[in-house]
Specification:
The complex is a heterotrimer.
Chain A: H1 12-19, H2 23-54, E1 56-57, E2 66-67, H3 71-78, H4 80-111, H5 118-130, H6 133-144, H7 150-157, H8 169-197, H9 201-209, H10 214-242, H11 246-251, H12 259-269, H13 274-298
Antiparallel strand pairs in A: 1-2
Chain B: H1 3-23, H2 25-29, E1 45-51, H3 58-69, E2 74-80, H4 85-97, E3 105-109, H5 113-118, H6 131-134, H7 139-144, E4 146-147, E5 150-151, E6 154-160, E7 162-166, H8 167-172, H9 182-196, E8 200-203, H10 210-222, H11 240-254, H12 267-275, E9 279-284, H13 287-292, E10 305-308, E11 320-329, H14 335-348, H15 351-361, E12 364-365, H16 374-379, H17 381-385, H18 387-391, E13 393-394, H19 402-418, H20 423-443
Parallel strand pairs in B: 1-2, 1-3, 8-9, 11-13
Antiparallel strand pairs in B: 3-11, 4-5, 6-11, 6-12, 7-9, 7-10
Helix pairs in contact in B: 10-11, 10-19, 11-19, 19-20
Chain C: H1 9-41, H2 44-47, H3 62-68, H4 71-104, H5 110-121, H6 129-139, H7 145-170, H8 174-181, H9 186-197, H10 199-214, H11 218-223, H12 232-235, H13 247-267, H14 269-277
Helix pairs in contact in C: 1-13, 3-13, 4-7, 4-10, 5-7, 7-10, 8-9, 10-14
Classes of the chains: A mainly alpha, B alpha/beta, C mainly alpha.
Chain lengths: 308, 444, 283
Amino acid sequence: MAQQSQKKEPGFFGKIKEEFTTAESRTAYYMTVPTLAVILIVAFFPIMYSMILSFQQVTPQQTFGTFVGLQNYVAMFQDPSFRDAFFNTTVFTVVSVALEFVLGLAIALAINRQFRGRGMVRAAVLVPWAFPLVVSALMWRLMYQDQIGIINYVANTLGLITQPILTDEGLLLIGAIVSDVWKTTPFVALLLLAGLQTIPGDVYEAARVDGASRVQQFFKITMPLLKGSILVALLFRTLDAWRIYDLFWVMSDRQLESFSTYVYKAVRISQLNFPLGNAAAVFIFLSALVLAFIFIKGFGMQTSPGGK
Amino acid sequence: MSAGRSMNRRDFLKLSGAGLAGATLLGAAACGGGGGEAQNGDGPIEIIFSFGPDDSGTLQEVVSRFNEEHEGEIQVNYREMPADTGQYFDQLRTEFQAGGGDIDVIGGDVIWPAQFAANGWILDLSDRFTEEDRQEFLEGPIESNTYDGSVWGVPWFTDAGMMYYRQDLLEEAGFSEPPETWDELKEMALETAEATGTQFGFVFQGAQYEGGVVNGLEYIWTHGGDALSEEGSEVTISEPPAVSGLETQRSMIDDGVSPDAVSSYKEQESHEAFLRGDAVFLRNWPYVYALAGDEGESEVSQDQIGIAPIPTGPDGGSFSGLGGWNFYINAASDPEVQDAAYEFIQFATSTEIQRFRALEGSFLPTRTELYDDQEIQDTVPVIALGRENLERSRPRPVSPVYSDMSLIMQEQFNSSLRGQKPPQQAADDAGNEMQSIVDRAESL
Amino acid sequence: MAAATSSGSGNLWRSVAFYAFIAFFLLVALFPLLWVFKMSIITRAEIFASPPTILPNTLTGTSYETIFSDARFQRAILNSVIVAGVTTVICLFLGSIAAYAIARLRFRFKSPFLTLILAIAFFPPVAIIAPLFVQFSQAGIINTYASLIIPDVVFALPLTVWLLVAFFKELPFDLEEAAKVDGATTLQAFWKVIVPLSAPGVFTTAILTFIFAWNEFLFANTFAFDISVQPVTVVIPQFATIYTVDYGAQAAAAVVVTIPLVILVLIFQRRIVSGLTAGAVKG
């Protein structure tokens, strides 16, 4: 039915019309339209509105302000708080995703076999994942606190820190990374483990016969065959880290700035930074888009579930 | 903020709002709960009164007493807001921006009126709360309610920075009087901590939050400086007196008087250290004195504790940061609701009710006459002990863009205290950023 | 059975090392939860003890009494259940019909649709709080359950659709054909045949969507002003009075909101793992 359309190329509206002539595709559109509409109205319409506002001098009380070109973006990049947010978010994303990937892969490789207690391990792995991020942030804050915090106490006793963790931005950032690694490494490990399990054992058998060492097997077989899973895990984690809000907000008690906390403060707390907040909102949206594009086009990631 | 603009905005938003509501009808229809109910034609006038959690239980009592007295006429409903002042403020502002919201009486922080008033969100109370009425109240809280020549709130209960000290420990170390200057405090704190084996000399609130601003400003004021000039158009925070205030604050950590962690302390952490007997001095609010009377909370008893004015620098007087809460009325409420709301405010700030709240919940009254009330002085000694602090209380800058200024001061005071940058630089950075805020605010 | 295929002392050591690694891993994964649980059952004095105690010395139920006698907390749990529950129902409804079309019907704009839905998974929610705020206010639904459920639905939908597409694709394609031969329409085939057959997958999706909505914080923190609508994620960090924070009660609250999730996870771990990894490994 769908092949008919390849014969001649009608215009865009023609194509749409044509699509509605077959019962199957008509039903398909009826079925997808509600989801599509909700997404467009609740997410894309507002981001378009933010984009318009980001080029204007505007207060939270106005619908539209006066056009000022790129002025808000310039002011945003000059704002020391935004630079902090840029630095923190970038470091946080790069370091935590890298650690989660390396540790997750190590764990996945280690538990990719039959052993007693495997179910228990898998369940335990899911516990940090299921934690509300806010609760996990609060929990780690309690452990970092100088009067009652076990981690602060141990780190201090071992001489690892010269300052209480919560008083130093560097330590807070490290603390945020540690808590994120704790929470999401298991998730990455699960994704990679699932990928590992789809690699048939006889591939390794053949390689062994050819005299490939374990290291060679890892780089020549495991990694290429795991590429799809790795990309999915990395993309999810990167974009999640890039928009981090809950963890920074609660764990550092509003002290550590990320892109999202910057936007939140500008549009919800400040009286004057509303336009900068809109510019930052657009910035974080576009940069996330670019990151996703790099993963999907640059690395050739497959985006449809279940394969074709 | 012109009327024409707001009309456009309303139409535009209604349109988009309608689209949104339509598309997500399913979601909205499935969950009608949570919203406020409409006012009935008959029956009592319903008032929503917002305030943070009432852990003393006295607020509930006041509300129900009022409701009993006005049965059939006015019904006040208490809506609990977040304990965190910043979050409470965010939510109120959010409601106001959303077109007024349904809260009629706001029990609000003393730093809010200018911002609310400048946006036309709260009612000008100058006519209701007359000059004559005002004379019966403490000066500091009235000042905090005065913006643009009008009075926007009625003082409810007050707060002021107190310098708590451990009388027993000072005596043990051979000091008979509390310190009058910061230098004396440092010396006494170090010697006493040393002599008595106490962990810390002095704890206060140094975290990056509103309380950190009050602490920082106290150092600045007591060194003869200020954040803004008298008329509010000029930023004076990078001038020498202010800088020396921040230097003194930083020296608390440098000289080992205060722990490093003090730069992450809020009220809780600092009073915890003091009440567990780990600190000789504590700068905090009056509530701590009542906590010291509670054996479950404190290992230190009230008779071991003294209260002194905030110490001074080389050239400044003693000032206490003013805290506390006022009542405001939502400008968007119906006129008859506003009248009823003011009636509730009069009731809640009356001598009798303030006396009740002072005796039962240790809330510091805003009516001057109550400070001479013998029973209050006996039951709530902090009122007598801290009277000097209350009389020297000073409001933070009264500005319509205070929340932006506060964000900057929070960050810069904290980075100076942490030693991330020298006090001079923190003050310069704060000065530049605050000046740009003042300029931008004027151009709006 | 790590050493099933070989024998000898080298392998024994390898086994020991392996289980030591597993034990260490379990400890790290569970330590924070155990620590917070410990904080929730000891006295105030012990919470502040220095050096901290490793095992609880002074057991008490005070913290749990505090939170369970607190009307705010009860209300917050109820709010969370309502918001997450309604979100899950709506997501399943919208998501399953969309996923069915994507998985089993042919139409031209399928791939842009899917891309658009997936784009939401990467969308920074903070970018739209300001405009949404204004819209919700004008529509009069700010500070209602709807103001939390609407954005939650949108951000949970990609997950729901993604999982359901993967599950629906697993079913053999001649199922509907058979149903249609019997005279059923596409929709009937979907409701009567596909949905019942993929019930386990739908169920897994429901659990994951529920957890997602249960854990949401940003929208709740922005659009819910008071305790009548605020869910637990917003209320717990605020578990305090104006000046004092009750650490024990915070810890107890953290335990209480996490336990249901941990139980769900333990019971359905196999399903959840298959759901989480659905699609991700087959591409």
